[in-house]
Amino acid sequence: MKAYSFDKVELTSGYLSDKQELNRVRTIYAVYDRFYETGRIGAFDFDYVPGEGKNPPHVFWDSDVAKWMEGAAYIIKKHPTPELEAKIDALVEKIKAHQDENGYFNIHFTVVAPESRFTDRDKHELYCAGHLMEAAVAYDEATGKRDLLDCMEKYADHIARVFMEEGNAAFQTPGHEEIELALVRMYLHTGKRKYLDMAKFFIDTRGSSETSEPNVSYNQSHLPVREQTEAVGHSVRAMYLYTGMAYLAAQTGDEGLIKACKALWDDVTLKKMYVTGGIGSTYVGEAFTNPYDLPNEGAYTETCAAIGLVFFAHAMLALENDAKYADIIERVIYNGLLSGLSLDGTSFFYENPLEINLVEHFANERGRKRLPPTQRVECFSCSCCPPNINRFLPSIGKYLYAMDGDTLFINQFASSRLEDGEVVCKVTTDYPVSGNIRIEASGVGKIAVRIPEWCEKYEIDREYTIVNGYAVINNSGGAIKVTFDMTPRAVFANPRVIRDCSRLCVMRGPIVYCAEGVDNGENLHAYSVPCDFGYKEEFSAEFGLPTIEVNATRLIPFDSGLYSSRRPEKVAATLKMIPYNCFANRGKTDMIVWLHAE
Amino acid sequence: MKAYSFDKVELTSGYLSDKQELNRVRTIYAVYDRFYETGRIGAFDFDYVPGEGKNPPHVFWDSDVAKWMEGAAYIIKKHPTPELEAKIDALVEKIKAHQDENGYFNIHFTVVAPESRFTDRDKHELYCAGHLMEAAVAYDEATGKRDLLDCMEKYADHIARVFMEEGNAAFQTPGHEEIELALVRMYLHTGKRKYLDMAKFFIDTRGSSETSEPNVSYNQSHLPVREQTEAVGHSVRAMYLYTGMAYLAAQTGDEGLIKACKALWDDVTLKKMYVTGGIGSTYVGEAFTNPYDLPNEGAYTETCAAIGLVFFAHAMLALENDAKYADIIERVIYNGLLSGLSLDGTSFFYENPLEINLVEHFANERGRKRLPPTQRVECFSCSCCPPNINRFLPSIGKYLYAMDGDTLFINQFASSRLEDGEVVCKVTTDYPVSGNIRIEASGVGKIAVRIPEWCEKYEIDREYTIVNGYAVINNSGGAIKVTFDMTPRAVFANPRVIRDCSRLCVMRGPIVYCAEGVDNGENLHAYSVPCDFGYKEEFSAEFGLPTIEVNATRLIPFDSGLYSSRRPEKVAATLKMIPYNCFANRGKTDMIVWLHAE
């Protein structure tokens, strides 16, 4: 199927629309301000002088600002915003002014280490280039101003010379993938085949020559990509590579690539993904670990990796009309991705743990035992996640609709309007608050409505056939009503996941719930929840979603001492649960997703 | 009560006797050989020259060898062993030859950094001195050869001058406690009051002047010791300090010290101790953390800390006739202490985790995520634990019997014979294989038999009254038969211990059991055990104790995928359990103590 670009889709109201608005009116400015304060914006003046007290521009600063520019461009595309446009224009002017004659552009490798260009594979030059290319495409699409695109075409041509013609860089492929997918976007935007060839070069070369470096699996260079079947190494790198592979495959029809993408997809989503859609279990290399190794408290699950998984899923959907890809997009967005952003839109999680036990943070406070932070912050020294949210939210419309032949696919549910020539579709829903969806479309023969994999009961007021997870309906005009049962339910993990054995997770529709100490007292492990729990729910304006009170039992602590042959007493209790993505918005407190099952 | 020295007690057969024999015939030599190979023995030649390729003698090497000497001396005391005596004599000759005129003795601060004597509180000089003093007392007691004692008296006098008279060291109290308890032993052995005064000086000065250093709680210097009520910091340091305080209090009757000792005892044993008797939850500073923070997989629980807790308990028993102290001695010895030694007597755990999940050791293999080792090793770079076992096992007899007035206290149960003048007691038992104990004593008016806190059913074939955890029996001659019910039982943790909520531990008598992957397959978390489990037991010659097969259930893994709204199926299963202290003797494998409770 072919997805409709976000600019064809208007989110009119509801949960995702609210998040998009929050980004448009607040988060995009908050991130800019932090980037300004930390010197990332000023670095584009190229006036860093060692020893004068400023922080040296870091190797990945270009990419931080590029992602912000890309996000601002998406906003401008839908909501002309002179303030944002002026900020981007100012940055573009500086890029033009400081780009090398030969096309090279990188702040760090111009003002800090100009002698070291393209000598260290791990220093993010091609990664920064990729993000600048994505920003350039987005800004040209948004405004028709092609200065940045001109710069990046010139840079791309330089990279082609250095890596493909002259081969005089000290490495063959980027240590941090990103440019591969960016080059496909450059190709699609400009129509210039050479960029697709460059993407193909970097993808084909990966894992064929640099396999003897230490930690080759860290950046997925351990095998030629077509032979890779297991997701390994740094999870963001992996997602950007796999996305690039799928993008390329969509253009070339390369069966080897498609087969590898499918195997990698299965490995990630069937063995290495948290219930929140978070991926990358360990802070050691921000990486994948063993299959089924999904520790809750130590979960790394970087926000960027969640965003990357959405990119990968979206790219796979273009290769195969299977609702499973859109299911994962939904799981990730509503849980492990949006948890990266505070409710007020100004602070961020880089890591998104599934459990917090403050009692165990004793050692952490001394700075040596590694547990994820318990509170969001406004900026990180490595601040890749905040601008990734900046660019993700305004483009969220692209995940809603897609077309194949005369069939309109509805992949995500939000009150929205799609318009593309004769094709018009209007969806009205407060999903995921309720599961009631009204669809009215014209200009399409069939409508394929994704039946979420979590949904066991649903009603559609038309005849339909289920194909690959979609209810396919002949579009005879008039409104179609679809209802998904949103009863909160217990979800269980495969017992191979040792940390979730004898536990359950509460979900309602696509939303994973958690319990916090601030609502339920200091020991969340004392609660057990029966599999067929009773509950009450209540809409929370604070969270934009219902909270759920679950009937549970609670262990009574011993008055004193540690061990006894008498089983601790249990009392009936209720456990207040909130959407996981809203955790840690009310101060430092304990949190748990996987509850002890009765 | 006053305990009988180990030399009055003959262990005649049984579990503890076997461990003592293992140390006598194998472990003592294994440790010596490793110390020889690593240069610790050779370091006493004082011939280290920087740059010649040898490892520089470490600041704590003196103490490693001193503890070994102390252990060897205890062996010699009961089993004259010329080979060991010759080894000690050779070391003593070197100590005599290289001790300074003024009495100072430390290898590192003579051959590596002679200009830095007594300048760095954290460099273990007084700790090493303390261990050498303990060795000196032990060797004089064992052989009557007082050369080492003479050296250490001279060193003690030097320390008194530097620290108490001239005050010209760069610190006032040791960064690692040990000398305090050693000085009390010096006093008790020599009768020289000045050593008691020195112990008092170091104890009284602690926490009164060095309170502004960073991490003062790490070495218990945050408060004057009489004001300390919470066990904090490095757990071995804490145990040695508290033992020294209790030793001193036993000599002086100091009520403030006794009160502090009792408060610290309660804090350790009621809030910060694993079911194995292990203490010190975190590798960060090898330290105590928050009350009830007892993570299983990451448990640090250093073997030396377990031994230190036995010392502290033994010292408390001299202050108060309460069986609770002997209960902890039993818990520690049979579980978290003996786990430090391999079944073949040649390798050691420094850390004694309560759970191993190899799937989570992925990152560990890359050397960055901190989890305890899964296999014992023969020597550590910081090899304090092996010689601590060397000295603990031959002196184990001292924990068995004590006297107060005309009452003989039987604190630990092992086939043994006590003889001290008119007082003779013979105990016959295969405890803890069975709970049958036969006691025959003469020369005592009453016999106080500890009723273990774990024991809910017992029989005594005489009249008795329970006083402070002891069954007090008038000794009218003839054999007394005591039987403790050894039925395996479920033990539960206080629900404040978050990691043990909804779990249970299987114990049989004083023995904590664990399940290993080698017996039960790769996912021990898939098992659940009912609280009133059925079982079969079988004596294992390999372990010297019964193994237990527990009736359990086991979750069946999903064929594929991660999450489902269908609860995993359970099947009936049996779980083979072995004594915890025997874990990791059959290769790398998973291990679990706290099982999921049905």
Task: Report strand % of chain A.
Answer: 15-25%
Relative helix content of chain A: 25-40%
| Unreliable residue runs of chain A | none
DSSP E strands of chain A, number: 23
Using only C-alpha atoms, the radius of gyration of chain A works out to: 24 Å
| Most extensive chain interface and residues per partner | A-B, 62 and 62 residues
Characterize the quaternary organization of these chains: homodimer
Helix-and-strand structural type of chain A: alpha+beta
> Which whole number gives the mean pLDDT of chain A?
96
> Strand order across the biggest sheet of chain A?
1-4-5-9-12-11
Number of helical segments with 4 or more residues of chain A:
15
Question: What global shape of chain A is seen?
Answer: globular
Q: In whole angstroms, how far apart are the ends of chain A?
A: 44 Å
The biggest beta sheet of chain A reads: 6 strands, mixed
Tell me what you see in this structure.
- Two copies of one chain form a homodimer.
- With 598 residues, chain A is an alpha+beta fold.
- Among the domains of chain A are: 38-205, no CATH class; 402-484, Sandwich (Maltose phosphorylase, domain 3), CATH 2.60.420; 489-597, no CATH class.
- Helices cover 35% and strands 19% of the residues of chain A.
- Chain A contains 15 helices and 23 strands.
- The first copy, chain A, has helices at 15-37, 61-78, 82-98, 108-111, 125-143, 147-166, 179-190, 193-205, 235-252, 255-271, 303-317, 323-337, 362-365, 385-392, 517-520; strands spanning 2-3, 9-13, 355-356, 401-404, 407-410, 415-420, 423-429, 436-442, 446-450, 458-460, 465-467, 470-474, 480-484, 489-493, 503-508, 511-516, 527-529, 535-540, 545-555, 563-564, 570-579, 591-592, 595-597.
- In chain A, the strands form three sheets. A six-stranded mixed beta sheet of chain A has the order 1-4-5-9-12-11.
- In chain A, strand 4 and strand 5 (407-410) form a beta hairpin.
- In chain A, helix 1 crosses helix 2 and helix 7 (179-190) runs antiparallel to helix 8.
- Strand 14 (489-493) of chain A pairs antiparallel with strand 20 of chain B.
